[in-house]
Design goal:
The structure is a homodimer. By secondary structure, chain A is an alpha+beta fold. Helix content of chain A is about 30%, strand content about 35%. Chain A contains 4 helices and 5 strands, in the order βααααββββ. Chain A has a 5-stranded antiparallel sheet with strand order 1-3-4-5-2, with helices on one face.
């Protein structure tokens, strides 16, 4: 049974946010990841990065927000199933995001598979200088009641 | 120039945590992802899941902790570079994690590429019933001063 997602190829969602030191410290508490490269400025200064970098998984969280914008759009337009995250393909962190950077997470629907009730979308994080920091794909699936 | 990671194939790290409602709400604040499937119990009851599910990106955060355990082990054993996350391959969310589930994130080194200064590791999230909830690969790279 085909699933009507009410989405179109090329359709986008964006979410911009300045990532504060508090965001990074709260993310460390929730995730348990207190790597010094994220939370210890003195250590970070000794690395080739010279500053603390933001957790990659926190950036994935911003992308999760863009997928939710698209999912809610689909439901508002009348989709029958509930769109949920099925996974991610070939995520690459191209350059680090630093504390106080303002990044934009962008989600672009690339493939619509109505038979499988599934979309594949390009995901990317761009910083305030327009540099691409993270790229990959996200798979969303429309789950219908059994 | 080859990079000595001081890690071995098959080497593991684990991190277990009960994911509380507060964790999910704080993650929503940091990431901006207030999808009702994560934060609205009344909505979640109308879905095939019947309960709020934990953000996939929060689970990625627990896996980030396991990669940090392995990275710190490498540095403590004398590695010259700083191990950082290069990305993730073929992440699949196999079944949902619910609020109050106690999950274990597990990281297993699978491939050591000393020439590229890079490891590929299997990552997985297992719930308190032993069910595999998320699976994929993580790529770590040892960055040396220019």
């Amino acid at each position: 049974m085909a699933v009507e997602t009410y989405l179109e190829i090329g359709e986008q969602a964006e979410y911009s946010r300045r990532i504060s030191e508090a965001d990074v410290l709260r993310f460390a508490e929730i995730s348990g990841d207190f790597s010094p490269i994220h939370v210890d400025e003195a250590f970070a200064r000794t690395t080739p990065f010279r500053r603390r970098i933001v957790h990659g998984a926190l950036l994935m969280g911003l992308l999760s927000t863009t997928s939710t914008i698209v999912a809610e759009r689909s439901m508002r337009r009348g989709a029958k199933g509930v769109p949920v995250s099925l996974g991610y393909d070939r995520i690459r962190i191209i350059q680090p995001v630093f504390i106080d950077d303002e990044v934009t997470a962008r989600y672009t629907v690339e493939t619509l598979d109505r038979d499988a009730g599934r979309t594949i979308s390009r995901i990317e994080i761009v910083n305030q200088h327009g540099a691409l920091c993270l790229v990959g794909s996200h798979v969303m699936k429309w789950v219908t009641p059994a």
